Amino acid sequence: MIMRADKGNLLEYLAKAVLDGSAIPTIAELSKQMGVSPAAVREQLEVARRLGLVEVKPKVGIQPLDFSLTAPLVLALDYGLKVRPDYFDHYSDLRRHIESAYWYEAVPRLTPQDVKVLEALVVTAEHKISQTPIQRPDLDHRDFHLKIFSRLDNPVVSSVLEAYWDMYLNSGMTYYMDQAYLERVWSAHREIAEALAQRDFERGHQALVTHMDLMQYVRKAELKQKFE
């Protein structure tokens, strides 16, 4: 099926292709259909690729990907933090409110197996922290929080949280977290996992809020240290 889009608008073309279930043609064919040069198509295609809309593989061609806000958010934050570093704190505050607000919607949907995964992440993280020198359980931290909200049927919330953890892991903030701090962090995570295993959602929520307040305190201490 030959599709038409506004001249030069590759994103519109891709959206129509996804909705119609049509294959995306070669760059040469896109150039003809869109009325722009192959170079212009390649430029727009690179933008679409960085936005996580398509992947381009040799001998396979251009394939649309399932739409997610995560890649565009990560891309925007990567740039935004370079020109507005205070966006880290603003986005962190948004994440705190989202996790707190969606807690009671998310946690009843967790399965017993999900809770076992959370408990296993705690054990793994505590083992890493006990090593000499310590191993920072940064990815375990990310996986723990994302697992809690993994059953939500809300891809926008999922993307906002995923983008936060990409930003957090790339921020270098964990450099300022010593063993004592990490032990406090994972003590809170252990309490969260135990509360979820007992389906004591109120106790789990309180542990979550206390933990996030601690992270905010450490962020402020980090900023103070940078300017001393």
Sequence-ordered SSE layout with sheet pairings:
Blueprint: H1 10-20, H2 27-34, H3 38-50, E1 54-57, E2 61-64, H4 70-83, H5 87-106, H6 112-129, H7 138-148, H8 155-170, H9 179-197, H10 201-227
Antiparallel strand pairs: 1-2
Features of the shown structure:
2 strands, Arc Repressor Mutant, subunit A, Four Helix Bundle (Hemerythrin (Met), subunit A), two-stranded antiparallel sheet, mainly alpha, 228 residues
What Rg is obtained from the alpha carbons, in whole angstroms?
Answer: 22 Å
Percent range for β-strand residues: under 5%
Work out the number of β strands.
2
CA distance, first residue to last residue: 64 Å
* CATH topology description of the largest domain: Four Helix Bundle (Hemerythrin (Met), subunit A)
Biggest sheet layout = 2 strands, antiparallel
Count of separate structural domains: 2
**Mean pLDDT, nearest integer?**
89
> Percent range for helical residues?
55-70%
CATH class of the largest domain: Mainly Alpha
Order of helices and strands: HHHEEHHHHHHH
CATH architecture of the largest domain: Up-down Bundle
Poorly predicted runs: 223-228
Shape: elongated
Name given to the CATH homologous superfamily of the largest domain: GntR ligand-binding domain-like
Structural class based on helices, strands and sheet pairing: mainly alpha
Strand order of the largest sheet: 1-2
Counted by DSSP, the helix tally is 10
